[in-house]
Amino acid sequence: MMLTPAEAVAAATINAAYSLGLGDDRGSLEPGKRADFVIHEFADYRELAYFIAAPARPRVFVAGREVSA
């Protein structure tokens, strides 16, 4: 799709939330929004594309609470 890594991350987060009508509540980490996020062990967000098919053990948070470690 010729997207930069930053554009791909935005498309999968904030833009996706707004397309579903949830952008006021989700899609970015901001005060007052629901804190659904994943923590990967990467040094830089651009590494995500390189390891997308590799087995990973990310930390998963839903509504600000860790659900997987």
Description:
A hairpin with a 2-residue loop joins β2 (59-62) and β3. This protein has two helices and three strands; from the N terminus they run ααβββ. Helix content is 20%, strand content 16%. It is an alpha+beta fold and 69 residues long. A three-stranded antiparallel β-sheet has the order 1-2-3, with no helix packed on it. It has helices at residues 5-12, 14-19, and strands at 37-39, 59-62, 65-68. The chain has one domain (5-68).
How would you concisely characterize the structure shown here?
This protein has 69 residues and is of the alpha+beta class. Helices cover 20% and strands 16% of the residues.
Question: Which features does this protein show?
Answer:
flat, 69 residues, 2 helices, 3 strands, 3-stranded antiparallel β-sheet, alpha+beta
- The coarse overall form would be flat
* Cα-atom radius of gyration: 13 Å
Treating each run of at least 4 consecutive H or I residues as one helix, how many helices?
2
Strand content: 15-25%
Portion of residues within helices: 10-25%
How many structurally independent domains? 1
Strand order of the largest sheet: 1-2-3
Major beta sheet summary: 3 strands, antiparallel
Distance N terminus to C terminus? Answer: 33 Å
Instruction: Quote the average pLDDT.
Output: 88
Overall structural class, as computed from helix and strand content, comes to: alpha+beta
Low-confidence stretches: none
Number of strands: 3
| Series of secondary-structure elements, N-terminal to C-terminal | HHEEE
